[in-house]
Amino acid sequence: MKKAHSVFLILFLINLFNYIDRQAIYAVLPLIQKDLLLSDAQAGWLASAFMLVYMFAALPIGYLADRYGRVLWISLGATLWSLSTAMTALCGNFTSLFSTRAAVGIGESCYGAVSPSFVCEMYPPEKSGMIMALFSLAIPVGSALGYIGGGVLGQKWGWRDAFIFLSIPSLILAAFASRLQDPRGKRTLLDHPLKKSTLTRETQALFSIPSYALTTFAGAAMTFALGGFAVWMPSFFHRQWHLSVAKAGIIFGALTVLSGVIGSYFGGFLSERLIKVNPKSYFMISGLGLLIGMPLAIFSLLAPSLKSALVSLFVAEIFLFLNMGPLNAIIVAVTPTTQRSLAFGANMLLIHALGDAISPTLIGYLSDLAGLKIALISASLFLGPASAFCFWGMKHYQNDLI
Q1: Is the Cα dihedral 319, 150, 93, 38 positive or negative?
Q2: What is the DSSP letter of 93?
Q3: What pLDDT is attached to residue 83?
Q4: CB-count burial class (<10 Å; 0-12, 13-18, 19+) for 14
Q5: Is residue 43 over pLDDT 60?
Q6: pTM for the complete prediction?
Q7: Nearest alpha carbon to residue 300 among 289, 311, 287
Q8: Mind listing the domains of the chain with CATH numbers?
């Protein structure tokens, strides 16, 4: 168990900086837009550049990692996104910035497709809900630190120096990751039980599992909304409430980390307790959280004062983060061990293809036409279908368990 905890710590820290490096750019987006003369639509495309390659790279990487081992992809991915983050500082126009964000996406897809199954397999199956919840804490904490660090460093040193500074920790952690041992052991293509199966056939087989498919569709609808919030909320605070770039990043980052830690932990805690008496609790907790969080998120955009907006957003995010552990635990529970990296890769592909690969750009275009508030309210409505998919999944979960 001590070894499992050590592996968990290394992978958690890498996941933490995964989200720090991913989100920091949105805290300094107003500075970049001013410096490079970018429209809101172009700024939205920067997020889409990341997500497009992130999602398409995840599927083949997961397929290969299941066959040839996962350690290489973890360390290689962290190295690539670190160097690409540093190179962002050299960008002088939209095209070069678009390219570096795409490269960051490739690096992070290596990690995202492989690490969840790697972590889960270090622990007993009955712990998967809580382990994935704890591992997922890196999402709100890393995102918050990205907003705070990016905003503060960007305000003080300029956005270019901020990216150089933020790239260093991930590069160091990549060296530690290269020394990990895969819990499945070393594997070659000849060892794989599905060695004659193709990527297409395996992917189709995964989506024939109702619980897996509905989890993925729920994640896509949720990611459409939350991906838009992640990109545009600091700018919304900057425009709506006239906060400085640094203050907007700090406030949104602080809200995200506090609500994310509370929501993710209690989502894991509740699922671990309730799963013993109700096998459908992973889906139930996720669906309820999304259903309650939607109107609260919308109110935060319509609130008459900054204080009421922050309170509403904080409570909304607590409910919206309840599903971080449970939805990932569902994927682990209903997919074969030999296909879990592929399962997470395919999940990443679809949730981002239908979610935050397109929502930041669409929000940017709608913002140019009707204003950022209307654009973000429109995106929030997708939390309703996300909740519905979770409640639908309750009907299938027990039959889909491996």
Answers
A1: positive
A2: S
A3: 92
A4: buried
A5: yes
A6: 0.77
A7: 311
A8: 2-181+198-400 (1.20.1250.20)
